[in-house]
Design a protein that fits this description.
This is 3-deoxy-D-manno-octulosonic acid transferase. It catalyses: lipid IVA (E. coli) + CMP-3-deoxy-beta-D-manno-octulosonate = alpha-Kdo-(2->6)-lipid IVA (E. coli) + CMP + H(+). Involved in lipopolysaccharide (LPS) biosynthesis. Catalyzes the transfer of 3-deoxy-D-manno-octulosonate (Kdo) residue(s) from CMP-Kdo to lipid IV(A), the tetraacyldisaccharide-1,4'-bisphosphate precursor of lipid A. Pathway: Bacterial outer membrane biogenesis; LPS core biosynthesis. By secondary structure, the chain is α/β, with parallel strands linked by helices. It contains 19 helices and 14 strands. Strands 3-2-1-4-5-6-7 form a 7-stranded parallel beta sheet, sandwiched between helices. A 7-stranded parallel beta sheet has the order 10-11-9-8-12-13-14. The radius of gyration is 23 Å and the shape is globular.
């Protein structure tokens, strides 16, 4: 594809989006009915907002889901420390909950507009961001082009490109170049990611490491943790977290295989809590007694599985165990973040399909903080070994802590890369009249 054809394709994408825009109401209604959209806030997906833009400089942060949201929280705190207003967009109800929990009313939260010209233009016309900071791998053509047309600097932080995404973009180099040339800077997670962005036409590109290492551990309610630990008593525990369809069944099979030997409690935390009803039905059919967090069920000696079907409580679940299998690694593929369980002292187990977190796993494996399993049978053997060997669990937990210590520093590197864009806004914020500064929105996010 030549550069001319690439630009023609992007123009076609723009007109196609404008054509289907009026037809998206039923699509969003269906998503709202499934709990994937907040019904009362669907207008935000069209770029509309009832919240006025605050005076002074404003930075737009976009983080698609939970992991990306958590990763950019320290960056947002740095920007807010400089009295610069922040609009944070996320794409899921779950990530909105995490933003509310970790940032409160210090930012304005909105759901990200659909990547269609009418919605994106309306969003940008209202908020007029001075800088756009996008997390990880969110490449939305219309959003990038509209920011570029407005000459708004846009920086991709904690950037990564999976094997699949890189292969797909590599087949369309002119299209990739026409998009990536609009990025003012890419701050990549790893040397491999940096090479990939450079190959696709991004300039300049620097390497920071993974921002997720420099975040704090997931929070938890200490009183609730003590209450649950009292219910569990002296029973052994293990957790299967961030599971995808097919992995819940594997966790159930592991529980049955080990129960006669260990009498353990299995803590099952699906990546998408809206699957909890189906998971509970599956567990019931296998003769397993379930206690659900969302119902406030008590854990008693006969409870087989504690189903963690709530949002924002991963810290609570991980503090109930020292062994964590991290999902989307045996089924689904790509993996989920292994650093949170490592932060909380867990031995990490995972399937090998973890391309989205390749470097994190490589370092954990090198330091003995994680182990790969091939299938459910191998997972059962690994959990059995760790339940039977406290010293092995402790050694893996220490390997995880060493890995985290070795990997830290991404936040400082990212802030250094952002300084040319943030420093002028800092000066601009300081020059605001005091009355504007005192009345400037410190949030008012529509929750």
């Amino acid at each position: 594809m030549s550069r001319g054809w690439a630009r023609a394709a992007l123009v076609g994408y723009r007109w196609f989006g404008a054509g289907i825009y009026p037809l998206l109401g039923p699509y969003l209604a269906i998503r709202a009915a499934k709990g994937k959209e907040e019904r009362s806030r669907r207008n935000e997906r069209y770029g509309r907002s009832r919240i006025p833009r605050p005076d002074g400089p404003l930075v737009w942060f976009h983080a698609a889901s939970v992991g990306e949201t958590t990763a950019v929280v320290p960056l947002i705190n740095e920007v807010r420390r400089r009295n610069i207003a922040v609009v944070l967009t996320t794409g899921t109800v779950t990530s909105a909950g995490v933003a509310r929990e970790r940032l409160g009313d210090t930012v304005i939260h909105q759901y990200v507009p659909l990547d269609l010209k009418p919605a994106v233009s309306r969003f940008l016309d209202h908020w007029k961001p001075d800088l756009a900071i996008i997390a990880e791998s969110e490449i939305w053509p219309m959003t990038i082009l509209e920011l570029g047309a407005r000459r708004t600097p846009q920086v991709l932080v904690n950037g990564r490109l999976s094997d699949r995404s890189f292969a797909r973009w590599s087949k369309r180099p002119s299209l990739a170049d026409a998009l990536f040339e609009n990025l003012s800077h890419v701050v990549a997670q790893s040397d491999l990611d940096a090479e990939r962005f450079l190959a696709l036409g991004a300039r300049p590109v620097s390497v920071s490491g993974n921002l997720k290492v420099d975040t704090t551990a997931p929070p938890w309610d200490a009183e609730e943790l003590a209450r649950l630990k009292e219910q569990i008593g002296s029973r052994n525990t293990w957790a299967a977290i961030s599971t995808f369809e097919g992995e819940d069944e594997i966790a159930a099979a592991v529980h049955r295989a080990l129960y006669q030997r260990h009498k353990q409690l299995t803590i099952l935390v699906p990546r998408h809590p809206d699957r909890a009803d189906a998971i509970e039905t599956m567990l019931d059919q296998r003769g397993l007694k379930v206690a659900r967090r969302s119902r406030g069920d008590q854990i008693d000696p006969s409870t087989d599985v504690y189903l963690g079907d709530t949002i924002g409580e991963m810290g609570l679940y991980l503090n109930l165990t020292e062994i964590a299998f991290v999902g989307k690694s045996l089924k689904g593929g790509g993996g989920q973040n292994p650093l949170e369980p490592a932060m909380l002292g867990c031995a990490v187990l995972s399937g090998s399909n973890v391309e989205n977190f390749r470097e994190s796993y490589a370092r954990l494996l090198k330091n003995g903080g994680a182990r790969y399993v091939r299938d459910g049978e191998m997972l059962a053997k690994a959990v059995h070994f760790l339940l039977s060997n406290p010293q092995a669990r402790q050694a893996m937990a220490e390997g995880g802590q060493k890995t985290l210590q070795d990997m830290r520093g991404a936040l400082k590197a990212t802030i250094r890369a952002l300084e040319p864009y943030i420093n002028p806004l800092t000066v601009k914020a300081r020059l605001l009249p005091r009355e504007n500064e005192s009345s400037e929105s410190r949030g008012g996010g529509q929750w």
